[in-house]
């Protein structure tokens, strides 16, 4: 199992409010990867994303190593609850952080099984046998409109309100997260990203780039390069685990 991640502030933003954590485990064999995309003012977005990614990773890793009786879904759910609580309390106590929040997408892998958890519009993709399948559903206004038949997927990509999310960590005391359970196969690549990448690179392009990349390191670097070449108006983060 191999992993790699990269993040960049992009071409327009003054600072990078994305954050990620990637950790490979030996006993039990597995991995954790989490990507967060902050929002809420000059510094607050970066604080929210960093707090959420660090707290989620800390709690999830501790349980994966010390609580084998817990399922990955239970671990992911508990870690997300605690990450949300920490960001929410900071936003209440610190006037400079009022209203801050962050997306979260994370994957936990243990002995061939995986769980993905998300809130917001950061995404997870499974790349297998030359194709790329999106695992997560965006919690966003345009995704709701697509589901309701009011927009096509192509129209959603160009919609002026495509960045309005309907769910984020730290905004409310309790935030529901979606949980997806996966059975992984040898050769799979599990990729997580912020919308700074998914708004610039399509799923077919992800699959094509994975086929052309010998390593997961090359894959992530090439995706970042593509986003930057296309203008990268937002922060860009991509992290991937290769089985």
Short description:
The protein has 243 residues and is α+β, with helices and mostly antiparallel strands. It has helices spanning 44-66, 72-93, 141-147, 153-158, 195-198, 203-212, 216-229, and strands at 2-8, 18-25, 30-39, 101-102, 104-110, 113-119, 123-128, 131-134, 178-183, 189-193, 236-242.
Protein architecture, described:
It is a single chain. The chain is of the alpha+beta class. The chain has seven helices and eleven strands. The protein has helices spanning about 45-65, 70-95, 140-145, 155-160, 195-200, 205-210, 215-230; strands at about 1-10, 20-25, 30-40, 100, 105-110, 115-120, 125-130, 130-135, 180-185, 190-195, 235-240. The strands form two sheets. Strands 2, 3, 4, 5, 6 and 9 form a six-stranded antiparallel β-sheet that branches. The protein has a five-stranded antiparallel β-sheet with strand order 1-11-10-7-8. α1 (about 45-65) packs antiparallel against α2 and α6 (about 205-210) crosses α7 (about 215-230). It is globular and about 45 Å long. The N and C termini lie close together (about 5 Å). The model has no long low-confidence stretch (mean pLDDT about 95).
Search tags:
alpha+beta; Phosphatase 2c, domain 1; 5-stranded antiparallel β-sheet; 11 strands; 28% strand
For the record, the count of structural domains works out to 1
Residue-averaged pLDDT, rounded?
A: 94
CATH secondary-structure class: Alpha Beta
Give the name of the CATH superfamily: PPM-type phosphatase domain
Report the principal-axis shape.
Answer: globular
Determine the structural class based on helices, strands and strand pairing. alpha+beta
Total strands: the figure is: 11
Instruction: Give a quick account of the main beta sheet: strands, pairing sense, barrel closure.
Output: 6 strands, antiparallel
- What order do the helices and strands follow? EEEHHEEEEEHHEEHHHE
Which regions have little confidence, pLDDT < 50, spanning 5+ residues? none
Question: DSSP helix count?
Answer: 7
SS strand fraction: 25-35%
CATH topology tier name: Phosphatase 2c, domain 1
Helix content: 25-40%
- N→C terminal distance: 5 Å
The name of the CATH architecture is 4-Layer Sandwich
Rg from Cα = 17 Å
């Amino acid at each position: 199992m191999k992993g790699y991640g990269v993040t960049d502030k992009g071409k327009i933003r003054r600072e990078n409010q994305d954050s990620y954590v990637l950790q490979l485990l030996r006993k039990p064999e597995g991995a954790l990867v989490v990507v967060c995309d902050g929002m809420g003012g000059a510094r607050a977005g970066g604080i929210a994303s960093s707090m959420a990614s660090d707290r989620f990773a800390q709690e999830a890793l501790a349980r994966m190593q010390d609580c084998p009786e817990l399922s990955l879904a239970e671990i992911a759910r508990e870690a997300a609850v605690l990450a949300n609580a920490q960001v929410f309390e900071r936003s209440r106590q610190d006037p400079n952080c009022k209203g801050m929040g962050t997306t979260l997408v994370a994957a936990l892998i243990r002995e061939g099984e995986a769980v993905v958890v998300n809130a917001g519009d950061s995404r997870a993709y499974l790349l297998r046998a030359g194709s790329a399948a999106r695992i997560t559903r965006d919690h966003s206004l345009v995704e709701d409109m697509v589901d309701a038949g009011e927009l096509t997927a192509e129209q959603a990509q160009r919609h002026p309100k495509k960045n309005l999310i309907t769910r984020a960590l730290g905004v409310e005391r309790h935030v529901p997260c979606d949980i997806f359970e996966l059975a992984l196969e040898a050769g799979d690549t599990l990729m997580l990203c912020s919308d700074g990448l998914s708004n610039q690179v399509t799923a077919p392009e992800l699959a094509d780039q994975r086929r052309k990349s010998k390593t997961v390191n090359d894959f992530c670097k090439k995706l970042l390069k593509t986003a930057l070449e296309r203008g990268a108006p937002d922060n860009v983060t991509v992290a991937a685990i290769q089985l």
